[in-house]
């Protein structure tokens, strides 16, 4: 044991002598640098990095420009790699000997000689870490990164070393008060919070409260959204007044009440009366609420959406706010509502005039259906909705969404408009129709279809989306756009539908329930295809096709549609195009889809009795031959099968998003200028 101790002391003494010898050699190397010009070069003592770091000033500027002594006048900077290497090695040697103060002085000297190189910052920061001064190290690493920020990370290994050295300190020292960021960024960050969440932010500190409630951030308080979370924390009237004071002149610009119990009548009235610059009003269900009918202060209101109760009187609690809307009619552009007033059915004159309205989405509540074809008149009687008379009340509509649950559209009203057809919505570009809830055979569905057919004759239409709840029977299966359907000709022999059905401006026709015969589709789409304007189209295959013969014939008759370069969205519904062999080349639908060079979005709904394995094979074939971005699977098939796992993996490999749902209808529909 004694021998081991003696051997250890000898080795240590030898190592110390070697280190001291190394220090001498590093010092000689430094003195041999040409920057000294044969003279002894001392350190500059003017720089005080500790004070600069404490005051938050620039370390780089201190190293680069602070010098009042003779050293700075006699010697300039030196980026000689050997000189810097000698200093770094000597600093590391002092560090190994436990002389951190001397190691730190050499690191300072490195900064003095070469403030644009990362070596000094890295050495200085490492010493600060050893001294347990992490904040000092963070600032030194950051100063080094900023000093050479124009250098690409890949071109400088030492710059990457600086970044790696700073990483462990990142979470602790990179945190910044978000309110210290530029005003635009602060507004963007806090815009994601509801006003009730903003109230909690005011409790952080006085500075936060003073900043967030200043006029600079008044936009944050102009969106008042009431949700279910407010049921127990609903603000009092005084709270609402206080919040609106932060919004500045004109009060709230947006009011949204998304829950029945989130807002009281007194709160709603106060909100509206204190928000003369209101632009957006959305109330999920008025229930017992009413909107002021004796005020005309909302001269900037553009969007209103609400649901009313069919049993409640107009302008009463829970009823249709007709007077409120009339008072804002001069600026109102977008109106969405569910609950059509009974007066609108009985008297056309009761429908108010909205000359500036651009989009209208109108729905009703499901009503009890009377026995078909009876003369019995009771409260359950279904009256035809005078849809064409809305063109008088809303003459400048650009987008119209009818449904769901709007009672049948009276076809007999069309005769009245034969001589005024050019006056019916001359600017209408979007027509969407959803059916009323079906309770079996609906005797009025046919009237609605006829009326909708005439609405599609409007020449300005660009986007048409039609859904019908009832199915056509297998044998008749009439086409609304064939141009030769006696059903329409017999009803109105004096009104030539085909002369109004050029569809020159059509850009999309969407329907997952209404089938078009291929000749009817050609009549409807040919002009738009020739003009390369048609971008979206849905094909609904014949119903009741158990063998697949009808589906095959149907697809073959769409030969004229193949290769249309303007189409980027397609839908195929209720098809039965199963391959009769194990060869994927025999799949008909993939070959059809492959002809569309710009197809990016696809919706698929095969017959519900398809084997999931075959559907998966078809999807794999489609992925191989197309350049899709999104596939919507509108199917009731059990998509958790193992074969569907292969489809999902193949979609991920090709960057295709697979969505097991229907594509949502955009509203309003984006229109090209």
Structure summarized in a few sentences:
InterPro entries: F-box-like_dom_sf, F-box_dom, LRR_dom_sf, TPR-like_helical_dom_sf. This is F-box domain-containing protein. The protein is an alpha/beta fold.
Report on the architecture of this protein:
The chain has 673 residues and is α/β, with parallel strands linked by helices. Among the domains are: 156 residues, Tetratricopeptide repeat domain (Serine Threonine Protein Phosphatase 5, Tetratricopeptide repeat, Alpha Horseshoe), CATH 1.25.40.10; 139 residues, Rossmann fold, CATH 3.40.50. It is built from 24 helices and 15 strands. A 15-stranded parallel beta sheet has the order 1-2-3-4-5-6-7-8-9-10-11-12-13-14-15. Helix 5 packs parallel to helix 7, helix 6 runs antiparallel to helix 7 and helix 7 packs antiparallel against helix 8. The termini are far apart. About 4% of the residues have low confidence.
């Amino acid at each position: 044991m004694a021998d081991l101790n003696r051997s250890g002391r000898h080795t240590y003494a030898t190592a110390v002598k070697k280190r001291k010898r190394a220090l001498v050699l590093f010092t000689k190397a430094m003195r041999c640098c040409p920057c000294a010009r044969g003279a002894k070069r001392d350190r500059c003592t003017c720089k005080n990095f500790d004070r600069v770091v404490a005051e938050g000033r620039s370390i780089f500027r201190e190293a680069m420009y602070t010098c009042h002594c003779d050293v700075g006048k006699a010697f300039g900077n030196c980026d000689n790699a050997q000189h810097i290497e000698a200093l770094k090695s000597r600093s590391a040697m002092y560090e190994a000997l436990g002389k951190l103060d001397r190691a730190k002085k050499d690191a300072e000297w490195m900064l003095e000689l070469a403030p644009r190189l990362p070596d000094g910052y890295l050495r200085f920061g490492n010493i600060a870490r050893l001294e347990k001064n992490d904040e000092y190290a963070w600032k030194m690493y950051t100063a080094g990164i900023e000093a050479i920020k124009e250098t690409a990370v890949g071109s400088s290994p030492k710059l990457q070393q600086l970044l790696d050295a700073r990483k462990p300190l990142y979470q602790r020292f990179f945190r910044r008060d978000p309110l210290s960021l530029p005003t635009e960024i602060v507004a963007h960050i806090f815009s994601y919070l509801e006003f009730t969440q903003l109230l909690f932010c005011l409790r952080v500190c006085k500075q936060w409260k003073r900043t967030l409630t200043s006029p600079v951030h008044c936009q944050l308080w102009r969106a008042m959204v009431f949700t279910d979370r407010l049921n127990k924390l609903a603000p009092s009237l005084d709270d609402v007044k206080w919040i609106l004071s932060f919004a500045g002149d004109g009060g709230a610009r947006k009011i949204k009440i998304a829950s029945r119990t989130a807002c009281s009548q007194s709160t709603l009235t106060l909100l509206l009366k204190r928000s003369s610059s209101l632009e957006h009003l959305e109330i999920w269900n008025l229930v017992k609420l009413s909107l002021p009918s004796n005020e005309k202060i909302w001269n900037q209101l553009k969007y209103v959406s609400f649901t009313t109760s069919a049993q409640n009187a107009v302008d009463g609690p829970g009823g249709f706010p007709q007077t409120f809307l009339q008072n804002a009619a001069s600026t109102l552009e977008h109106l969405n509502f569910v609950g059509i007033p009974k007066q609108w059915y009985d008297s056309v004159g009761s429908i108010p005039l909205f000359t500036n309205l651009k989009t209208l989405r109108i729905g009703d509540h499901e009503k009890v259906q009377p026995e078909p074809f009876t003369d019995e008149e009771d409260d359950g009687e279904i009256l035809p909705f005078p849809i064409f008379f809305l063109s008088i009340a809303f003459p400048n509509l650009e987008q119209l969404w009818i449904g769901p649950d709007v009672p049948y559209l009276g076809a007999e009203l069309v005769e009245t408009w034969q001589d005024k057809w050019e006056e019916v919505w001359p600017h209408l570009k979007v027509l969407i129709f959803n059916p009323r809830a079906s309770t079996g055979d609906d005797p009025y569905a046919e009237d609605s279809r006829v009326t909708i057919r005439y609405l599609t004759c409007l020449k300005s239409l660009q986007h048409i989306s039609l859904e019908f709840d009832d199915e056509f029977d297998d044998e008749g299966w009439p086409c609304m756009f064939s141009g030769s359907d006696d059903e329409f000709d017999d009803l109105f022999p004096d009104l030539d539908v085909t002369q109004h059905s050029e569809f020159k401006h059509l850009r999309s026709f969407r329907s997952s329930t209404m089938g078009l015969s291929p000749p009817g589709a050609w009549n409807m789409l040919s002009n738009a295809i020739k003009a390369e304007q048609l971008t979206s189209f849905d094909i609904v295959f014949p119903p009741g096709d158990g063998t697949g013969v009808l589906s095959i014939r149907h697809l073959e008759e769409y030969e004229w549609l193949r290769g249309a370069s303007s189409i980027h969205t397609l839908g195929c519904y209720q098809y039965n195009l199963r391959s009769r062999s194990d060869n994927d080349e025999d799949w008909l639908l993939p070959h059809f889809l492959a002809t569309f060079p710009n197809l990016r979005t696809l919706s698929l709904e095969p017959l519900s009795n398809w084997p999931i394995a075959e559907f998966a094979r078809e999807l794999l074939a489609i992925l191989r031959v197309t350049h899709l971005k999104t596939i919507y699977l509108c199917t009731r098939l059990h998509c958790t099968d193992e074969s569907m796992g292969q489809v999902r993996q193949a979609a991920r490999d090709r960057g295709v998003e697979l969505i097991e749902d229907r594509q949502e209808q955009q509203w309003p529909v984006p229109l090209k200028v």
